[in-house]
Amino acid sequence: MRKSLAAFLFVLSTLAFAAPAKPPCLVSMNVPKYPPLARTARVQGTVIVKIVINEKGEVTSVTEVSGHPLLKEAAISNAKTWYFEPSAENKEIVATYKYILDEGDSDRPAPISR
Fold first, then answer.
1. Three-class SS state of 73
2. For tag attachment on the chain, is the N or C end more exposed, with fewer CB atoms within 10 Å?
3. Which CATH architecture does the domain made up of 3-102 adopt?
4. Three-class SS state of 59
5. Bridge partners of 26?
6. Average pLDDT value for the chain
7. Residue 44 to residue 22: CA distance in whole angstroms
């Protein structure tokens, strides 16, 4: 029996600020899981989410920007678990998740690169 390995790629980018700002530093994140229904349906694709971070480095909100409906909730749920280095100001970033099905023997996504 062949299992699929879900690969993902995430990219963080700081949104525009009034003054140049240091991009937030990601301290911890959980590896996102490939949604079972999307895996069964062989759905692949990119999900883009907007993340708001407070001064403590905690994610306060995640909003979907675009992506396949079967992949969106997994990306949103995962982004809510991230933690960033504390900062003097709230920040907004954009994260891109890319879900790719590959042949493999694990149910967990494997990071491609940053």
1. helix
2. N
3. 2-Layer Sandwich (3.30)
4. strand
5. 84
6. 76
7. 33
pTM of this structure: 0.70
Q: Write b or e for each residue in 59-75: b if 16 or more Cβ atoms lie within 10 A of its Cβ, otherwise e.
A: beebebeebbebbbebb
Q: Which are the contacts of 50, defined by CB distance < 8 A and separation ≥ 6?
A: 15, 62, 63, 65, 92, 93, 94
Domain residues of the chain, as ranges?
3-102
User: So what's the pLDDT on residue 31?
Assistant: 84
| 79: enclosing H helix or E strand | helix 69-79
Q: What is the mean pLDDT of residues 11-24?
A: 54
Q: Dihedrals φ, ψ of 67, to 5°?
A: 145, 170
